[in-house]
Amino acid sequence: MTGALERTGLDRRLWRGLIAVAALLLVTYPLFFDDLFYQNMIILSLILAIGAVGLNIIMGYAGYISLGQSAFIGLGAYTVGIASTRIGGDPFVWIPLAGVIAALFAALLGVIAMRTRGFAFVIITIAALFILQIVAINWDSLTQGTSGITVPLPTWDISIQNWPFYYTLIALLGASLLLSWWIRRTKIGTGLLAIREDEDKAATVGIDTPVYKIIGFMASAVFLGMAGGVYGYYIAFIDPIAMFDIVISVQIILAVILGGRGTLWGPVLGAATIEPLNELANQEFGGGNSRLLIFGGLLVLTILLLPKGIIPSVRDFLERRAKRGRAALVGGRLGERRALDGKPATATGGTGQNLLEVRGLHKHFEGVRALDGCSFAVEAGTITGLIGPNGSGKTTAFNLIGGTMGADAGEVWFDGERIDRLPPWRRAYAGLGRTFQITRVFTDMTVLENVVAPLRSFSWRQLRAGAVSGEEAARADDLLAFAGMAEYRDERAEALSFGQRKLVELAQVLMLDPKLILLDEPAGGINPTLIARIADMIRELNARGKTFLIVEHNMPLVLGLCDPVLVLASGECICAGAPDEIQRDPQVLDAYLGADFKLEEPVGAP
Amino acid sequence: MTEFIQATAFGLLIGGVYALFASGLTLIFGVMKVINIAHGALLILGAFLAFTLWEQLGIDPLASIVITTPAMFVLGWLIYRTMIGPLRSAPLSSTVLLTFGLALVCEAVMGLAWGNNSRSARPSYFDQSFDLSGIVLPKAQVYASIVAVLVLALLWLFLNRTWTGRAIRAASANVQGAALVGVNIAKVSALTFAVGIATVGAAGSMVSVLYPFLPGSHYIWIARVLSIIVLGGLGSLQGAVIGAMLLGLAEVYTQTYISTAWATAVPYVLIFLVLFFRPQGLMGTRLREDVAV
User: Fold this and answer.
1) Are residues A284 and A186 in the same domain?
2) What is the pLDDT of residue B123?
3) Which CA distances in Å does A219 have to A120, A172, A185?
4) Interface contact B97, partner A, CB < 8 A
């Protein structure tokens, strides 16, 4: 997001100045003004802002909506309330525990949601909020049910008013912002964005999606849990209805959307806008129904009229104005391609070793047998072609080999290891890379971010690494130069043409340094010059030891590039051999052309 | 044993009403991939309409479906035209949030119009029961379930025996394909949404007799419908019916053998269990956004 935007120096200084002034006002406010009404309003805004900055991590970065964020407020409040009344001690002592409990609960929900996608997460979060409320109501002995827990009032001197609450929350907001900022610029952030853009694709380039989602959700909960602890102590009375309030969830969501999801400061801006409205609803209209009406209505209106939120809309406007009249780079000619550095290219050819073996794969889609006992092998060092009529199961085979889908039966062996039970990212670590028939790049990222997104292994330490390290950037630049896309490195991938995306996707896969590269129709839908370029790239990479398995309908390309060629028909591999053998094989002719097809008699034959 | 049969019969009767309630949601999802979080709130609105008709005009709440159903049809059509239609190409997350906002607005409007007190329509048969050799079945429950099954059967006939119904099923199977063979997707979507909300109106009439309700009751109903689709899978009428029966049974068994207080937790617990152990749903339909290949 920030990478795509080239703000002028003046804009940036202005923006930073604004933030600094706002922060200064916020910090010094209670020292100069003692109006408790406004102090209360700021305290509630801070809680909302902490929630919104957190939610933005899972909703803005990773694209997963949580309708149950107020569950963490309740959990935090109950943790502090129960611990301080049962065990004793100053409630503030228990606030870190509130954060830990909230994060652990988020992890638990993350584990439950691990194997699901999209909407299931919304259901889980909403269910979590209500089930916690039911537990708080029914587990009398711990929570005192609907009668609630009364927390002892603070004992500090009245002259400092609510300062301890106020400054604790400011510290928590600062910490939330730091966490959000840090996540965005590390590998976790890139991984979360990749998940938002295309989760299946992210998994095939080595992103361990469940771990990323769980980390993201925990990060969105931890400080909100602590803020909930402060909140419970602040209002001194903890009951199931007010603590697990879905309207607060709505306010948190609204703050994120209104301010701008995916931005660092948007959620804070949103929270500062919404809390005064909340006060207005409570003071002027008696809360209850009018509070629901205002926030429900505002949610509807924001989604309909300002779906991007304030900050991105303003930024788009400024960007458009700044770019007016400047020719765009995209749509220009392809850049010069450069050979890869390193060891000289020597043709290797087949090595006699099978790198990939597919044994008896079955995949049925209800009645359709996409793969029906399909077996074949790919020899290391070859460029193997995989052809077959439409619907013969080529892409399904790719999906099963890459792990985007699970097979009904059969085995996939790669480099001596059985991989058909492994998730896609583990297959990527083992050295398997793939591209897609309809290219799938992360459109909201820059070309460079796309190329550095793949991960060759998983380690906790790596998560903390910067999103684009110097070494990676250098490697990505090399690969982009190899693809002839160096000039586009800072463009957003959304702006690229289909052919350019193919080149970026290939560079992206090469970042994995895979042993075997599966290409799904590399020549589909692009012009002959580009086809020739891609063929050259494949040959050059093959000469450096990369093995290829290529699905392609462009026969001249397949016959000129691939050896051997495998032929799929009706979900089975019916034939394998050198291109010229394949062309003459009666089974292949039959599969492509039908049983009653006769080769034309040569003209003028007797 | 009698207790078990009693509970099972009761669970299945409740399941019939749940099935009608969930059918609209799954129908809407099938065609436009929208999860209507306002479904529960619209159900309660239907219940309030039926309640008012009964209280003011003395119309039997179960008979009032001939009024609530068309009224909710019109409301559904309006909601589609003003809010859902414009978001047709927006991601799933936008419509989830939009309908969530709509649910809150609906709750607020009901609160302002009818107050936040618990209501319930009480026709003459309200506290009468059928007694079949020891198995007691409340009359209201039996009548409501019969009406629900009738409405579901009509819906099934509409979807399978009319051209409009076929257009809806075609759009549900493949929107682009349906558009190619001449189905007007915008019209079919509006119609589907309206039909979906109309079924909620019918279900609302039944709820007005079966359960005490207030504007805030819609949360438990949205929990129920979500757990039904998690159980039965999204997008098919059969899935909705099976999920509804399972939920009805699970709730009644919990009430009978564990405790009434925890029965409200059943839909949520089912959601967690199913999504963790069988994320593809019990029927095998995947509850996920499939990305086009």
Assistant:
1) yes
2) 83
3) 20, 13, 15
4) yes
